[in-house]
Predict the 3D structure of the following.
Amino acid sequence: MSATGIIQPKTRRGRRLLESRAPKLIEDTRRSMIISGHKVNQTIKDVLTDLHKLKGVDSLRMSRKNDVLPFEAGGDVWLESHGSRANCSLFAVGTHSKKRPNNLVLGRLYDFRMYDMIEFGVKGFAPIQAFSGARSSQLGNKPAFVFAGDGFESDAVLRRVKSMFLDFFRGRQVDALNLKGLDRVVFVTCLPGSKTIVFRQYSVKLKRSGTKVPRVELEIMGPSLDLEVRRTREPAADLEKEAMKQPKLTRTKEKNVATDALEGRVGRIYMPPQNIDTIALHKSKGLKKRKDAPEGAGGAEANGQKKRA
Amino acid sequence: MAEGPVKVTPAELGLGPSEEIDARLEFDLGNLCAYDPSPVDAEAYARDASGACASTASRIMQALVGRLFALPSEPADVGRIAELPAPTTALPREKPIPRPRPPTKWELFAKKKGITKHKRSKLVLDETSDTFKRRHGYSKANDPAAVPIIDAKDGEDVGDDPFSKQKRDKKARVAKQEKAQLANLKAAAKSGGKGALPPTLRLAAALPEHGRGRPVRHKDYKQELKAATRQAAISTASLGRHDRVVAGENVADRKLPGKRKKLPPVANKDGGERTSQSKLVDHILRKNADDIVDVGRAIGKFESAAREDRHRMKMKGANKKGRISKGAGAPTGKTKAGGVAKKGGREGSAKSRGKKA
C-alpha cells in the first residue's frame, strides 16, 4: 500500500495479470476449480479428474484435502476467495460421506460472488479411460451440446442444470468455427419421473455422405455420469438480474476485406507513395553504367534519354 | 467415366434433418447446442439405456450438423470455417459489464473550459547542451536542478537554499497530485462501485467499502497502545504503585478509578435524595424570591426598544402614523421633496435628449 491508500501491483507482470483479468465485453473462457473435499472416494476422485480433463487448460485441480462444504455456512466465502485468487468462476467440489455418498457440487460465481450451485449424487460413472472414443477427439476443442427431455424446459431445477452444463463445458465464445474441429458432443438428458440426469459424451466422426452435409457417427468416449439432483442454491434475485444483463455488442464491419470464391479472404490495403529515386532497389546489370559510354555531357544526355524511355 | 457420379439426396440415405425432427428442435448455433423438448421415451431407456442415449444423440446431432454446415463458410487450409451466429441461450456473465472510467475532476473542468489534450513530443531541445533530451524524468531537458548556480532574485530570503526549495516544491507537487488521484478514485468508487476503478488499482482497506470497514488512523493506534501500556503497568501485585515508571509514561495514568460515588436511594420516601434535592430547590427559591424580576430594569429595556423602533421608522421616511410613503428615501422625510427630486431627474434626461438632437 502506498502512502496515499491506493493499492497497486508491484511488478509489471502483476499489472499485466490484473489487466488480463479485467471485465471484458466478450468474456474469456470461464475457468474452473476442481476441488477435492475433506473426504473423497475413488469414484469421486475419478469423476473430478475427468471433469478436469474436459476443461483442459481452463481448469485448476485442487486435489488435496479441502475443508469446504459449499452448502454450509461459510462455504461460499471459501469458494469466493479461492475463486477470485485463481480467477476461476466455476467450481466442482467432490465429497463422499455416509449422509451424501458420491457427492458432486457444481457451481458458478458472478463477480467472484456466489451465484448458484447444484448438488448431484453420482449414481453411475464410467471414466474416459474406459472407452476408446477419446482417442479421436481433442479435448481442447469446443464441444457440441445435445439436450433432450421436456424437463429441461418445464422444471426450474433442470433448467438450471442445463444452463450449468452449457456454461461449464462450452469453452471459449467464438464467432467462427472450423467445422473439422467439431469432434465431440455432450449429451444430457433427464429421465422422466426421477430427477436423474444422464450425462454422456460422444466423439463425433463426420463421414462422407455424397452431399454437403456429412453423415454423423458417434462413438462413446466418456465420462458417463448418471446423476441424481440433491440440493440446489438459486441465485439472489438482484445478483441474477445484474449477471444476466448483457452488453450491447455492435459488430463493426471490417473495412476493405471481402471473401473471394477462389482466393478466400481478400483485402485491399493502402500503400503509401514510394520514392523510387532513393529507395534501395535490386541492382540489375542492365542499369549499370557502361564503360564504353561517352563521358561528361554526352553521358548525361544518354541518361536523360533513358529516363524518358 | 461415361457415367457421372450418382446423385443421392440426404432423405434417400435416411439422414439429414428430417422435417419432423427439425421442426421441434431448438438450436443455439452460437453455442453449438441443440435441444429436443419432446418427452423422453422412458421405456426405451429402461430397455437399453446406452443404446437409447446413442440413438437420440446421433439423431439430434445429425440435425445440428446439418444446420452448422448450412451456415455461410469460407475454405481454410483444413476444412471450412463457418461463421457462427451470436449465442442465444441466456447465460449469466462471469464479471460485470465493463464501464468507462468516470471522468476525473480535471477532465470535467477541461471539458467545461474547452481545453483539449495535445500530443507533445517526448524529446525537447536542451538549451544548455544543445541536444535533444527527454521532456521528463532522469536527465531531462532544461532541468532547473542540474545547474550549478541559481541566480538570486529580488525579495528572496538570503538564508533559503534554492536547491532545497526546489526539492521541497517538487515534493509538495507530487503530494498534491497523489491526493487528487486518491480523491478521484474515491469519487469513482462511490459513484460506480468497485467496477468503476481501473483493474490494476484497489483502494486500501482503510477506506470503507460497501458500508463496511472502519478507517484506521494513527490516532486510534495511539489510543490502543496507550491503553495497553496502562494495563500492563497496573497489572502487578501492587497495582503499579511500586513499579518503575517508564520514560514517557505519565504516573497519573496509573491511578486506578476511585470508589464509586454512592447515591442515596430515590424510591424511599424518607430517602436522603429527596430531602437533599428539595432542600436545594427551596434554598434557590428563597434566595431569589424577591428579585426575580427587576421592574425598573425591565421598563428601561422596554422604553429603549420603543425608542429605537421610532428612530428606525423616521430614518425610513415614515409619517407620524407610521406609514412609509411611496418614493421615499430622502433623509428629509417629506413626500413632496421626493417628488421634486424625481422631477429633476426627468428634466435631466430631457436635456440630454435635446443635446443629442
